[in-house]
Amino acid sequence: MAATIHDVAKHAGVSIGTVSRAINNYKDISPETKERVFKSIKELGYTPNVIARGLSSKTTSNIGVIVSGLLDSNRFDNLWYMLLQGIYRYTSENDLEVAIYPTNSKEQTRKSYTKFCKERNIAGAIISGITITDVYFKELVNAEIPCVVIDVPMVGKKVGCVSVDNIKASAEITDYLISNNHTKLCVIAGKKTAAVTLDRMKGINQSVMSNGLQIDDEDILYCDFSQEIAYKNVREYIEKHDKSRATAFVCMSDIMAMGAIDAIKDCGYSVPGDFSVTGFDDIPVSQLISPALTTIRQDLIQIGYESAALLKKIIDDPSEAKHVYAQYQLMIRSSVRSL
Amino acid sequence: MAATIHDVAKHAGVSIGTVSRAINNYKDISPETKERVFKSIKELGYTPNVIARGLSSKTTSNIGVIVSGLLDSNRFDNLWYMLLQGIYRYTSENDLEVAIYPTNSKEQTRKSYTKFCKERNIAGAIISGITITDVYFKELVNAEIPCVVIDVPMVGKKVGCVSVDNIKASAEITDYLISNNHTKLCVIAGKKTAAVTLDRMKGINQSVMSNGLQIDDEDILYCDFSQEIAYKNVREYIEKHDKSRATAFVCMSDIMAMGAIDAIKDCGYSVPGDFSVTGFDDIPVSQLISPALTTIRQDLIQIGYESAALLKKIIDDPSEAKHVYAQYQLMIRSSVRSL
DNA sequence: TAAATTTGCAAAAACGTTTTCGTAAAAACG
DNA sequence: CGTTTTTACGAAAACGTTTTTGCAAATTTA
Q1: What's the Cα-to-Cα distance from A202 to each of A150, A154, A165, A176, A289, rounded to whole Å?
Q2: C1' of C9 to CA of B7 (Å)
Q3: Confidence at B103, pLDDT banded by 50, 70, 90
Q4: Nearest CA in chain A to B47
Q5: Average pLDDT of chain B?
Q6: Are residues B126 and B233 in the same domain?
Q7: pLDDT tens, residue by residue, A198-246
Q8: Does pLDDT of A174 surpass 60?
Q9: Contact between chains at A98 and B97 (C-beta distance less than 8 A)
């Protein structure tokens, strides 16, 4: 039904090759012919078929987005959509197609990322929510498919990365806590194997040590970035130590901070009256909960945008692979009090 | 690099047509040959190229999702991502490809939806965030591309629709207000031309009239589903009438309810002490704000899922086009008090 | 057993592009 | 003016599938 390149060619009295050259701004064509072709294109309301182009052309403009958590339903902890927002902002500005591959943590039979990409002639992929040890990710890197990982600090052949400077940001918020005279800290950490957990821990330790303090292993609670686990662990911690061991909880995500706050309240204590709490991420609800959460704001939309931009660069020139640091901001609200 | 259907054919000693028949479960093939083909497929690690299939096959498994608001950044009012979540849940269960077309309300030069679909050999589209009068939508319907619209009650040739029963839900929440002795209501309405606005207004009126009450035009404030506009209008309304005219604000979205609550507070009044407020949607933050908002919960993930399922049905059999009603639930929280 | 039907597959034609190759005509050169 | 180079284009070969067509061989029917 729709006009094809053949229709345009016939209408303009040229060959399809010439039409293609006109569309793609190639050299081998005279200005007059080009104009004639464009006139026909307009008259017939022709638009190139993206699928056919994808098949024929070696260099595709398809990028893949591999995102975990999309299929899970968590009412608050939906970070992926902001990334997507940023990614789409870039791709719609730059005429890139995107294919989303929602991975499910539960589903065992996930398809290999590489397979997903090859099936779709994908030029490169943005990956979020994975750990460094992910086997499918390794396979993707080995296949030399350009990719950008979010929040995993690694740079390699055709692989770049975008994240905030987790070390610096964590040090900064810890400094803030210490400057408010909190010397006994309890860390609510994420998944033990996640790169962000390692980095944020490093930042917290840097701050603590440069202030002549230290954190015992007993005061690091790994909670897998889960609100429920954080609730449970903090509750146990307080029931065990009461107010003797820590005055503040340094949480590696807002979600876990929310769990911590709930636990503190359910133990009969108040925030920030009895315990101070900090988060990380600044998810939308963090400014609405009570007390409003002091946290590190990551602009995930920006991070998404930067990822897409970096990926495009790497696709065009593999030597562009690098670590891009996104901005962050310490949001001082009311979940921390000065001692 | 990757194995193609030709490699498999050669390896299995058959023609590519036979391989295709094996993959697609066609009849004209003997069990033995089929098995041999599958063995080769496995050995070579072959997966059919989605792009090539899309080009060749008449019946594609690509669906389009046309969604407004994706490119805009509103920190709270992000309903699209839940729809997407539901849609992807269905499509990953049913092996459908999805292409997202983020439309921007501001961008004048939007591409026609039809063009978007035809470029991508799209079998059908899910559309959200449009008004009935949208010209591109009309074009899509005329092109007889199967589609499902969310929140626009219209059923036609190859076009179905998914929404909650806005009339019934609005009547229900208004009934609740009236049963709490609120007889003087002010309606915070959405965009005047939006179908949901009309329906919800109808529901409110039904409830009001069956209770022997009525609503004057002066007590209907159109706020375009915007928090800011709702704030402004409610503020003006209260400054003009004080507490004489209405005791409760019936808002057609939670976002506008948040604006209304802010306005009430800034006028020196309290919710629900001086004014009661209800919302619609039950966005995640609604249970966290203070007071927690009494509202209608729409399960947008479910709505997304249903939309995709309905679209698939319509694609397979155009006579399946109909209006599917999704569940809703009155969430009674603390923004309404009994008089 | 001859004729008709069915089965199982190969061959080849799409699908709508991009890209390579070849070659007249035009332009530049010596 | 003859020769080389460049320009501008057509023809045709990919790209990796699905789908149509055709045809032997096997099976059923009469």
Answers
A1: 18, 16, 11, 16, 28
A2: 18
A3: confident
A4: A119
A5: 92
A6: no
A7: 999 999 999 999 999 999 999 999 999 999 999 999 999 999 998 999 9
A8: yes
A9: no
Same structural domain, B282 and B177: yes
B137 located within any domain: yes
Q: Which tokens hold the place of B285?
A: 């933050």
User: Do A75 and B119 count as a contact with CB atoms less than 8 A apart?
Assistant: no
Any domain includes B338: no
Instruction: Please name the nucleotide lying closest to B119, CA to C1'.
Output: C16
Asked whether the predicted pLDDT for residue A1 surpasses 70, the reply is: no
Cβ–Cβ < 8 Å for A150, A311: no
Least confident of A165-174, A269-278, B97-106, B271-280: B97-106
Together in a domain, B66 and B177: no
Task: Give the rounded percent of residues in chain A with a pLDDT score beyond 90.
Answer: 81
Q: Which residues are A98's β-sheet partners?
A: A63
Q: B275 and B161, same structural domain?
A: no
Nearest of B163, B162, B216, B225 to residue B193 by alpha carbon? B225
**Do A288 and A304 share a domain, yes or no?**
no
Identity of the amino acid at A149: V
| pLDDT beyond 70 at A60 | yes
Nearest CA in chain B to A75: B284
Of A2, A71, A115, the CB nearest to B118: A2
Mean pLDDT of chain A: 92
CATH number (domain holding residue A251): 3.40.50.2300
What total of structural domains would you count in chain B? 3
- Compute the distance between CA of residue A303 and CA of residue A86 in angstroms, rounded to an integer: 7
Q: What is the pLDDT of residues B210-257, one digit of tens each?
A: 999 999 999 999 999 999 999 999 999 999 998 999 999 999 999 999
- pLDDT for A277 equals 98
Q: How far apart are the first and last CA of chain A?
A: 74
Can you give the residue range of the structural domain that contains A266? 166-298
Does B279 lie in the same domain as B210?
A: yes
Residue B44 and residue B69 in one domain: no
Residue B134 pLDDT? 87
Q: Which of A92, A102, A115 sits opposite B102 (nearest CB)?
A: A92
Residue B160 identity: G
Question: Using an 8 Å Cβ cutoff, are B66 and B127 in contact?
Answer: yes
Q: Are residues A153 and A220 in the same domain?
A: no
- pLDDT, tens only, A115-127: 999 999 999 999 9
Give B164's strand partners: B326
Cβ within 8 Å of residue B27, ≥6 positions away: none
A336, part of any domain: no
Which residues in chain B have Cβ-Cβ distances shorter than 8 Å to A258? Answer: none
- Asked, for residue A23, whether it belongs to a domain, the answer is yes
d(CA B97, CA B95): 7
